[in-house]
Design goal:
Chain lengths: 544, 380
């Protein structure tokens, strides 16, 4: 069926195009017809292109686009050898167009270029447009239609109308409607024009809005230039409708960016919420543990260069282990001597952060390293013409919430979590009950550090991986924990998300730097009002 | 009169103070002498570079005293004290910028180069008055003092203490760092203020001016030390120490803890501002980097290394750590951060009282041993 409908549409196109097409075109195979491109005369080439267009073959698209680029050559001696070629130092690097086989580098003298003139180029472009309009993938069809918007005319509209007759996908039909309306809009007939304005008013395409705008333009005296009242009102309404929709979409986008920034903050801060919030240890090396996680990702990708797709899945547990072990080493080596002296811990862990930074600088060089993004994380999800959401941020939002939930489960449902809470509330009593507080301390710190490592894996997908990346997050992380209320994981979640959204809401009118300053000042003032954060601990736990 | 008697009694009773003030006096006389009078080939000649370097260390020393006042005596660990230092430095820098006059690259008599570059037409209102030395010097103390007053009033009144206070001071300096990086602020953005020509009519590049700035630094350091010593030995100082050791108890006894904290906090900020003002003309540049949280934390380390709650220790720490920094970054920059990091850990775990504390303890042990010996001798 599909094949039939395609053939049918091809036939229709041939009728619409203004050239007379030889009926014999459908008889020949691609291999035979393409030989016509070797002819010198441009009119002969033109008719060959028209014949090629009739063939239902995916290769035609490649042939046309390479021809348009001027990269199509043929081999002089062999009867049938059309190739795509890119110039290199030693001649041409050559791929056979028909078989897709790479033929290696061959001297330039053996080949002759298929030359094109302007008329032929125009023909090729419209042929390419037609071909992509009939592509199986609705996304490609849609993109093809949107590409036509810029220089749409009665000829392309004819293409669109035929496609509309057979198109089944709603989202493609919508853009075709817009395309047709863009042309009908130019019509002299007022009724048609009014209808076109209606259609355009429902679209979020930039071209639609741009087309209507001249109708609502005002002269120097502040009066509308357009005389026709009915048309003017319709246009004003249409523009208002578009603008309202654009407004919603830009709000949605801001919220999305805000939540995604919030989830980054959450990831960075949640490990700190454990070490700082639950244990009371001010770990200034927290940012460096994030850095270690990011570098672990980098190393894993170096070890498995052919499986980048799975590298993150392996990096997450590895980073957790590596950062966790480093954390335990820090706790056993330094911090355990300093319990009860929070300000001293701050200094000692800051020393550790300097050492870790320098260590990474010495091992990996001070330059930033690039971590690759797997295919499944890149790309965007297009909600509509005005709103596109990137996948990597989406995954990070999900990931941060998963990590949060996992951590909450560990603290609430496992025996380790019970011990952690017991030790944080009353160390001596916990010890009297037979809990090995030293071991619990090490495990808790390891847990917090491991989560920082996981955060590093996620951040490696968003920012540069370098020795200084940890420092960029340490202040923000502390702000989040303090703002949310020390020792309260839910507070950390709420604080991270609200700070993220506030930051992104302020950004458009204040600029990125000023927005950040305003947020910092806001937190400073907020701490004055509520010194224990959004959700202060109450009862026994608050006595620390 | 009372002040004088304070100095006399200090010199008579306090061995450390006597030793410290004598060293300063010797430095203040010998260094300029060896720089200006002793001929260049001589072994005793001190290069102008060295004079400037020493001057920089000593201005850091004054900054360290400022931090020691609030941290060592009042228990407020400020992680943003470099902000007050930098503000003082900027106030001085603004004066020096105005002194350039039409000798800048663009030759504009009114506007500093960077404003011409940003095509501004007139001086922002907050730059006016900085062409007068006395006004600039007033601002060196007033601006950090005012910021400290507002910040401290808000923070101490709502009883933000300990770690929370440390973190919001860090936020404060971070916010200022970001703000001063902005070109729109009118403080030269990324590049800061630099390319100074002269101060009070003296050429900044001349040896004599450098030596003069060094002597001024020594003077202010001595003065800052004396005033700080006076404060901590006064009744007020004792209350401040009481607040450090048991804030709630001091409050219950009936002292207005907030007022005492605020007072010493503002004084410390002004002292830091003066240190910044001494620093800028000697180094020849002030840029937003001075606001970076790392600087403030490094400052804390100086005090910790030297020994907090001793004032002299702060200066010793500042000079020793910075000397080590210059030394290490000179021949192996990679080692410096390893060394600094290890120093942080070592000092906090093994030397909670710092160098001065260690020396004091050694001296006490020795004295105790002598006494022990004496009693033994007497007994036998």
């Amino acid at each position: 069926m599909k094949w039939l409908s395609r053939l049918f549409s091809l036939m229709l196109f041939s009728l619409i195009s203004s050239f007379v097409v030889p009926v014999s075109a459908n008889d020949g195979s691609l291999e035979q017809i393409i030989d016509g491109l070797k002819q010198k005369s441009f009119s002969a080439k033109t008719s060959t292109v028209e014949q090629l267009e009739m063939i239902a073959d995916d290769r035609v698209y490649t042939i046309f686009s390479t021809m348009l680029e001027g990269d199509l050559y043929y081999q002089k001696k062999l009867p049938q050898a059309f190739v795509v070629a890119n110039k290199t130092d030693n001649g041409l690097s050559v791929t056979d167009v028909l078989t897709g086989k790479f033929l290696g580098e061959i001297g330039k003298s053996e080949f002759k270029k298929v030359k094109v003139n302007n008329k032929l180029r125009r023909l090729l472009r419209s042929a390419l447009a037609k071909l992509s309009l009939n592509n199986e993938d609705p996304e490609i069809r849609r993109a093809a239609v949107r590409n036509m918007f810029k220089n749409i005319d009665s000829e392309t509209v004819a293409l669109l109308q035929t496609r509309l007759a057979i198109e089944t996908e709603d989202k493609v039909r919508d853009v075709i409607d817009v395309g047709i309306a863009l042309v009908e809009f130019q019509s002299e007939d007022k009724q048609i024009k009014l209808k076109a304005v209606q259609t355009l008013g429902n679209s979020l395409e930039a071209e639609a809005r741009n087309a209507i705008l001249p109708l609502v333009a005002k002269g120097d005296d502040g009066r509308y230039l357009l005389e026709d009242r009915e048309l003017r009102t319709a246009a004003i309404k249409a523009v208002a409708r578009i603008d309202a929709k654009l407004q919603y979409n830009s709000w949605a986008e801001t919220i999305y960016f805000g939540v995604s920034l919030g989830s980054v903050l959450l990831l960075a801060a949640i490990g700190l919420a454990i070490t700082f919030g639950v244990m009371g240890v001010i770990n200034m090396a927290h940012g460096e543990l994030i850095m270690i996680g990011a570098y672990t990702t980098y190393v894993i990708q170096l070890l498995m260069p052919n499986n980048i797709e799975y590298s993150l899945l392996i990096a997450v547990p590895t980073a957790f282990l590596v950062a966790g072990l480093v954390g335990i080493a820090i706790e056993r080596g330094v911090i355990r001597f300093l319990y009860g002296r929070p300000l001293e811990t701050l200094l000692a862990t800051f020393g550790i952060s300097l050492i870790l930074q320098q260590l990474v600088r010495t091992i990996f060089s001070p330059l930033n390293r690039s971590v690759e993004t797997p295919q499944w994380m890149s790309g965007t999800f297009e909600v509509n013409a005005a709103l596109a959401l990137t996948y990597n941020r989406f995954y990070i939002i999900i990931f941060s919430l998963l990590v949060f939930a996992a951590l909450l489960m560990i603290l609430k449902k496992t025996s380790l979590g019970l011990h952690v809470r017991a030790v944080s509330q009353n160390r001596t009593m916990a010890r009297a009950m037979g809990i090995r507080t030293g071991w619990v301390d090490a495990m808790t710190f390891g847990l917090g550090s491991g989560i920082a490592g996981i955060a590093g894996v996620a951040l490696s997908q968003l920012t540069n991986v370098g020795p200084n990346m940890g420092q960029a997050y340490i202040i923000d992380s502390f702000m989040v924990v303090v703002f949310g209320g020390v020792g309260n994981l839910w507070g950390t979640l709420v604080a991270a998300m609200s700070l993220g959204v506030i930051n992104k809401v302020l950004e458009p009118w204040a600029g990125a730097v000023l927005a950040k300053i305003l947020v910092l000042v806001f937190i400073i003032l907020f701490i004055q009002k509520k010194p224990r954060g959004l959700f202060p601990q109450r009862g026994r736990a608050a006595e620390h | 009169m009372e002040n004088r008697s304070f100095i006399m009694s200090l010199l008579a009773d306090d061995k450390t103070a006597r030793w410290f003030l004598t060293t300063l006096l010797v430095l203040g006389i010998v260094v300029p002498f060896c720089n200006l009078v002793v001929p260049e080939g001589s072994v005793f000649h001190i290069s102008t570079y060295m004079v400037t370097l020493l001057g920089k260390y000593l201005s850091y020393g004054l900054l360290a005293i400022a931090l020691d006042l609030v941290w060592g005596y009042c228990g407020i660990l400020s992680l943003g004290h470099a902000a007050f230092f930098a503000l003082g430095g900027y106030a001085m820098g603004m004066y020096l910028m105005r002194q350039i006059g039409d000798r800048g690259v663009y030759g504009n008599p009114e506007l500093p180069d960077f404003m011409v570059f940003l095509s501004w037409n007139e001086l922002p209102w907050y730059w006016s008055g900085f062409d007068m030395f006395w006004f600039a010097m007033l601002m060196v103390m007033l601006i950090p003092g005012l910021l400290a007053l507002v910040f401290g009033w808000l923070a101490f009144r709502s009883r933000v203490t300990g770690v929370y206070l440390s973190i919001i001071t860090q936020a404060l300096t971070f916010a200022l760092l970001l703000a001063f990086f902005r070109n729109e602020m009118g403080f030269g953005g990324n590049n800061g203020l630099t390319d100074f020509k002269d101060i009070l009519g003296f050429d900044l590049q001349a040896d004599i001016t450098r030596a003069g700035l060094f002597v001024a630094t020594v003077l202010f350091l001595g003065l800052g030390y004396l005033v700080s010593k006076f404060i901590v030995s006064s009744k007020m100082g004792r209350v401040v120490v009481a607040i450090r050791d048991a804030e709630d108890r001091t409050r219950f006894v009936g002292y207005k803890v907030e007022s005492f904290k605020l007072w010493i906090w503002v004084f410390s900020a002004m002292l830091a501002g003066i240190a910044g003002a001494l620093y800028t003309p000697q180094v020849g540049i002030i840029n937003p980097g001075e606001f970076s949280p790392l600087n403030s934390i490094e400052l804390v380390v100086w005090v910790a290394v030297g020994g907090r709650g001793t004032l002299v220790g702060a200066v010793v720490g500042a000079v020793v750590v910075n000397f080590a920094k210059t030394f290490f970054t000179g021949f192996a920059p990679e080692i410096w951060l390893f060394f600094l990091g290890a120093l942080f850990i070592f000092v906090t775990i093994f030397l909670p009282q710092g160098i001065v504390g260690l020396l004091k303890q050694l001296a006490e042990n020795k004295a105790w041993g002598m006494k022990q010996k004496k009693t033994e001798e007497l007994a036998s």
